[in-house]
């Protein structure tokens, strides 16, 4: 302890917005805690307070107190006695997108800046591990320091954290098991406990500036901190004890060159649990979250660019983003809260999807209005909007309305007078209810054509198709008696319990594809834990139906049935004697000209205490790759699994996180919301598994083999058993030369359509030439100006040509805060060069429109 010169006491609380109690229960406690904190500040009993690096607590507080009380809280922030930010909220890092993290910082730093609160540290005290690109994300907001805990192990307190691209931020790694959770200053024997704590920290410190984080989850500091600090100074006169704000503490390390460097992703469980079971707990929440993120970026933000912000919706869009982010704190998106919390999350999800849906409907109707009151006006155009800037064939599904009085039995579609081949999925005559706020509600008699077709897009583009009513009989696709389905690239056959897929380009046949297995799980919402007596179940194919051979696609529905234990036995050591049946119904689709296999699976889960996975056989695979925010990470297959952990230790697991893709040998799996994968041996071969459902009944337990202690309150969570029906979408690409992170957009960003009577020309926005550069987003920043975000997931330099569909006025490279880093040649075709793992934001300024 002789190397410690100052002890900086940070008065704080760690505020999980919802967890073992609901948001409203915690919010009332937040109100009382902030009243208590302000009282202590007013009375001079504490010097300052750090509000957990979040700004959402201000919004939550404001809604349930008077304006006068809220202004009193803000006054403490203006005076520099309370600090907030840089985050809007503390989100999980592995289960949310890079764009969500950027939006989180954008909202948080904007609020902190407005209040005059410093936000100079990437405060991440309790997330369950840390992504490789966090240093680059923080630096892009001008944040040059971080504080981290779980997953990060170092022999030093002060470190440089080097991100995937080489970006470095000064980083405090909390070295002890207790991390940020320090309540000993409230104890009667606080002097002895402080000495013990400092003795534990001293070997890690090189600067002499120790930190006591005086607070914990949902707790506030004692009312006599001043007196206790004086007592510590008396007992240890050689050390200066003081209450310190986080911003002041960070400044103490200005110019310091740490001796130690930590690199990339931080997921080491040797110090403290990283709780990897959360990647698959309540997987329906992950699916819903990614659906919201996809629609926010791929529909809401994209349409705002196409319309140049004409709907004046900036505040509405911020509201939608805040709702999305409110589902992303680690105890929320990780699925490790009480059932009532996750019920409320589903309500937020529905609000987001409904809001974006109406935004999309109104924007599309404003741009391409559909006339439904004047019978003489023909809505003879179909506009198709693709928001993925990659040239390719895209599947399109559309609903076309023809007034019953003018319907001739069939329709044709043309683009530039070239006929488009399509399939009619359904044709029916029905009454349609159509409404708009500027017109009376309308009940119309229409013939409805549900159609699908393939259309080539040269990047992000809007195309106008002409609809023609023709005298003919529509042929609706119908089931056939095929023994397989295929397109130019793949042939798929079905067998007793799995599929075989032939790559028609190489002739290679992959057997034992797309099978379902289930193993018992004696874990909780935080960790998977196999029971002592394991049981493995495998589904069989019970039927095949709806084999469709259309002009533009072929598809089949395969039914699986699995007999498995109904639950664990009473002592949780093996299977219960009772048996139940799970069913899985998978629709498999091959589109003409598309090197992509689409899967949509509906699961009816009736089993408890189990992990249900979909598997694909592969050759021996000691290495796999999966994406996290703005990166593609190489991972090793863990063969030697060790369970039965001692107290406060957690097993290193073979399950890994994935954002949208997993690459193993010749397989690239794409998905939405299936964010846990593993590569493991099964029936003599290595298999790639995506976890679809993990059924557990406890928030936390203390009897797991894979974790030697509890991770939260021991509450029952029957909702986490995930009994009921769930639907997931995923895809497969075979062949290394065909792989790209952009393939996930084909699955997760659908082409938009709108029927209209207005005739407009085709429009091109932009496209990328390289499949190696990954596309993330494009978003409007101000009128005539939008940002394109791209990244390089590889370890090599890569280039792409950026083709614009118009003559730009100016092009810049900017950081995430919008500050100009460099000018780019303003031309319709521009080369963009990326260093390894580099994220770039290109700001495009259009000439006035």
Automatic annotation (TrEMBL):
Keyword line: Glycosidase, Hydrolase, Metal-binding
One term of GO molecular function: metal ion binding
SMART domains referenced in this protein's UniProt entry, alphabetically: Alpha-mann_mid
Pfam families assigned to the protein according to its UniProt record, in alphabetical order: Alpha-mann_mid, Glyco_hydro38C2, Glyco_hydro_38C, Glyco_hydro_38N
Family: Belongs to the glycosyl hydrolase 38 family.
Domain named Glycoside hydrolase family 38 central: residues: 278-349
Gene3D superfamilies: Glycoside hydrolase 38, N terminal domain, Glycoside hydrolase family 38, central domain, Golgi alpha-mannosidase II, domain 4
Species annotation: Fictibacillus phosphorivorans
InterPro entries registered for this protein in UniProt: Gal_mutarotase_sf_dom, GH38_C, Glyco_hydro/deAcase_b/a-brl, Glyco_hydro_38_C, Glyco_hydro_38_cen, Glyco_hydro_38_cen_sf, Glyco_hydro_38_N, Glyco_hydro_38_N_sf
Name listed for the protein in its UniProt record: Glycoside hydrolase family 38 central domain-containing protein
Keyword Ubl conjugation applies: no
């Amino acid at each position: 302890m002789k190397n410690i010169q100052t002890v900086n006491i940070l008065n704080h609380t760690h505020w999980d917005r919802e967890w073992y109690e609901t948001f409203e229960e915690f919010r009332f406690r937040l109100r009382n805690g902030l009243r208590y904190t302000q009282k202590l500040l007013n009375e001079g009993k504490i010097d300052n307070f750090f509000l957990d690096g979040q700004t959402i607590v201000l919004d939550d507080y404001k809604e349930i107190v008077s304006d006068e009380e809220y202004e009193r809280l803000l006054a403490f922030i203006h005076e520099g006695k309370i600090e907030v930010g840089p985050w809007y909220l503390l989100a999980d890092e592995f289960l949310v997108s890079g764009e969500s993290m950027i939006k989180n910082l954008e909202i948080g730093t904007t609020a902190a800046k407005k209040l005059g609160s410093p936000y100079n540290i990437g405060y991440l005290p309790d997330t369950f591990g840390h992504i490789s690109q966090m240093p680059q994300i923080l630096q892009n907001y001008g944040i040059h320091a971080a504080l981290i805990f779980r997953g990060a192990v170092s022999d030093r307190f002060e470190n440089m954290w080097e991100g995937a691209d080489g970006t470095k931020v000064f980083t405090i790694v909390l070295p002890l098991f207790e991390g940020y959770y320090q309540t000993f200053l409230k104890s009667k024997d606080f002097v002895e406990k402080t000495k013990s704590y400092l003795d534990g920290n001293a070997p890690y410190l090189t600067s002499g500036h120790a930190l006591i984080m005086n607070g914990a989850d949902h707790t506030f500091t004692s009312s006599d901190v001043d007196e206790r600090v004086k007592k510590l100074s008396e007992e240890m006169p050689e050390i200066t004890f003081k209450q310190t704000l986080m911003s002041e503490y960070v400044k103490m390390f200005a110019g310091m060159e740490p001796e130690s460097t930590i690199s990339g992703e931080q997921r080491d469980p040797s110090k403290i649990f990283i709780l990897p079971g959360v990647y698959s707990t309540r997987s329906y929440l992950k699916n819903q979250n990614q659906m919201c993120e996809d629609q926010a970026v791929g529909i809401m933000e994209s349409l705002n660019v196409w319309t140049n912000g004409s709907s004046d919706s900036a505040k509405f869009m911020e509201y939608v983003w805040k709702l999305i982010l409110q589902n992303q704190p680690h105890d929320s998106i990780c699925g490790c809260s009480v059932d009532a919390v996750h019920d409320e999350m589903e309500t937020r999800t529905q609000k987001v999807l409904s809001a974006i849906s109406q935004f999309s409907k109104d924007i599309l109707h404003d741009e391409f209005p559909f006339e439904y009151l004047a019978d003489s006006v023909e809505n003879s155009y179909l506009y198709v909007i693709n928001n993925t800037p990659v040239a390719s064939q895209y599947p399109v599904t559309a609903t076309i309305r023809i007034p019953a009085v003018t319907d001739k039995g069939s329709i044709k579609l043309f683009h530039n007078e070239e006929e488009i081949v399509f399939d009619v999925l359904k044709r029916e005559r029905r009454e349609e209810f159509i409404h708009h706020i500027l017109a009376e509600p309308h009940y119309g008699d229409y013939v409805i054509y549900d159609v699908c077709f393939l259309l080539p897009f040269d990047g992000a583009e809007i195309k106008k198709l002409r609809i023609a009513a023709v005298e003919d009989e529509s042929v609706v696709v119908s089931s056939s008696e095929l023994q397989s389905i295929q397109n130019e690239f793949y042939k798929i056959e079905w067998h007793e319990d799995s599929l075989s897929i032939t790559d028609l380009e190489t002739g290679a046949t992959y057997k034992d594809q797309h099978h379902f297995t289930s193993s018992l799980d004696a874990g909780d919402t935080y960790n998977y834990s196999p029971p002592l007596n394991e049981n493995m179940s495998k589904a069989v194919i019970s039927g095949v139906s709806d084999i469709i051979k259309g002009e533009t696609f072929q598809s089949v529905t395969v039914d699986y049935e699995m007999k498995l234990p109904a639950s664990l036995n009473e002592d949780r050591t093996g299977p219960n004697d009772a048996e139940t049946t799970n069913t899985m119904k998978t629709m498999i689709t091959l589109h003409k000209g598309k090197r992509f296999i689409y899967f949509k699976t509906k699961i009816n889960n009736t089993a408890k205490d189990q992990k249900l996975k979909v598997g694909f056989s592969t050759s021996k695979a000691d290495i796999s790759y999966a994406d996290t925010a703005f990166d593609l990470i190489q991972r090793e297959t863990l063969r030697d699994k060790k369970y039965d952990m001692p107290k406060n230790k957690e097993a290193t697991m073979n399950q890994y996180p994935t954002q949208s893709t997993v690459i193993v040998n010749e397989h690239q799996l794409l998905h939405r919301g299936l964010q846990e994968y593993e590569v493991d041996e099964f029936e003599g071969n290595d298999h790639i598994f995506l976890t679809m459902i993990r059924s557990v009944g406890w928030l936390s337990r203390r009897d797991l083999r894979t974790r030697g202690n509890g991770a939260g309150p021991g509450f029952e969570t029957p909702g986490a058993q995930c009994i009921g029906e769930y639907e997931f979408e995923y895809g497969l690409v075979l062949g290394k030369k065909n792989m790209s992170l952009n393939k996930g957009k084909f699955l997760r960003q659908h082409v938009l359509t709108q029927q209209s009577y207005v005739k407009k020309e085709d429009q091109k926005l932009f496209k990328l030439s390289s499949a190696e550069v990954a596309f993330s987003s494009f978003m409007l920043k101000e009128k005539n100006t939008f940002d394109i975000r791209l990244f390089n997931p590889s370890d090599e330099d890569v280039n792409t040509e950026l083709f614009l569909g118009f003559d730009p006025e100016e092009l810049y490279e900017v950081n995430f805060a919008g500050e100009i880093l460099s000018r780019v040649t303003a031309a319709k075709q521009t080369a963009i060069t990326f260093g390894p793992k580099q994220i770039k934001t290109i700001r495009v300024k259009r000439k006035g429109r």
